[in-house]
Specification:
Radius of gyration: 20 Å
Distance between the termini: 29 Å
Number of strands: 2
Structural class: mainly alpha
Number of domains: 1
Length: about 350
């Protein structure tokens, strides 16, 4: 509760200050020329609002630790490192767009290198820092509701697996961030799921002895605190990001949120469950993959009018607000299904 409230207040109060700061300096959004024409009116809307989400999350986490007199955990610090690191890559991308007055920031290869450096550092460190019973923030196993015992990757393959997951989720949220409030609203629900998962795992933790249905997770309560911090920050930001948006999160926010989501999935040992919880983000990513694959393999033929898929509905004449609300409903259904599967797995294990 502390983390959610602090992040909400920081984001709610800090975002309008950022709007004025960025507007005075002309830090406005550039719009892709091949996108829906209705988006052209958004040119010049202050961007890089993701800095407020990241800073509010960090403030909420560390203030919560100070208020409760608890030390930060390795798991919490590593997920926040991943979030802030990818946010920094996004910040550079956004700044180049503004500085050069174009819709393209970092080149694809440069952006991928930046993401990979942060991801690899996280993936290496997350296998270290064991606690008193030998649990590290992550394990070398692929996980669904818990680690899948027979599916151990080893350190090298785990690093590659982490890179794929983190790059995938950060880009998925980035692609979802194409309409006012869409990514921030969906993120509120996705991170709320990890608040529930973290708290539940804390109540059913294995501790020193492995019991039936318990969770061998290093710092589950801290994962809930991190998730609550991000959720509160997104809630406050959504107040100003909802249509018509006063500010856009930009790659600074979308890459950071995707990284935090992936980090929580890794550290709560729910990597494959995240595919259900983040179903909306996954759908947006797959629409781009399908579109690009079709264009290249079928000699220029497209499956959708435009990708990501929310733009297809815009070109079909759906109002932007209607698309956003309906996609929020899809995001909520994915979260509900994910939590249902999570609890079902616990009940079955008991």
């Amino acid at each position: 509760m502390y983390a959610t409230f602090i992040a909400l207040v920081c984001s709610l109060a800090g975002t309008p200050l950022a709007v004025r700061f960025f507007a005075r300096r002309g830090y406005g959004q550039e719009i892709r020329e091949d996108g829906p024409k209705s988006h052209l009116v958004k040119r010049g809307t202050p961007t890089m609002g993701g800095t407020i989400i990241v800073l509010s999350t960090l403030a909420a986490y560390f203030l919560t630790k100070a208020l409760t007199a608890k030390a930060p955990t390795s798991s919490g610090l590593l997920v926040l490192f991943l979030m802030a690191g990818l946010g920094a890559v996004g910040f550079v991308d956004d700044f180049i767009k503004i500085y050069r007055q174009r819709s393209l920031g970092l080149r694809a290869k440069a952006k991928l290198v930046g993401q990979s450096v942060v991801t690899l550092a996280f993936a290496v460190m997350v296998l270290h820092f064991p606690n008193a019973v030998g649990l590290t923030p992550a394990s070398e196993h692929v996980s669904f509701l818990r680690d899948i015992g027979w599916l151990s990757l080893g350190p090298a393959l785990f690093v590659i697996w982490s890179d794929v997951m983190i790059s995938g989720w950060s880009n998925a949220v980035n692609l979802t961030d194409g309409q006012d409030g869409l990514a921030s609203g969906a993120s509120v629900m996705a991170f709320a799921a990890y608040v529930v998962i973290g708290v539940w795992q804390y109540g059913q933790t294995c501790g020193a002895s492995v019991g039936k249905g318990c969770y061998a997770v290093r710092d589950p309560l801290d994962m809930a605190i991190v998730a609550a911090s991000v959720m509160g920050a997104c809630f406050g930001f959504l107040w100003w990001n909802a249509a018509p948006a006063k500010i856009i999160m930009g790659d600074t926010g979308s890459l950071a949120l995707g990284g935090a989501f992936a980090g929580l999935a890794i550290c709560t040992r729910t990597e494959l469950l995240a595919l259900i919880i983040g179903g909306l983000f996954l759908g947006e990513l797959l629409s781009v993959v399908i579109q690009v694959g079709s264009f290249k393999l079928r000699r220029g033929k497209r499956v959708f009018k435009m990708a990501p898929i929310h733009h297809t509905f815009e070109l079909m004449g759906w109002p932007e607000v209607n698309i956003t609300i309906r996609f929020w409903i899809i995001a909520g259904l994915c979260v509900a299904l994910g939590l249902g599967v999570f609890y079902g797995g616990f009940a079955a294990a008991k």
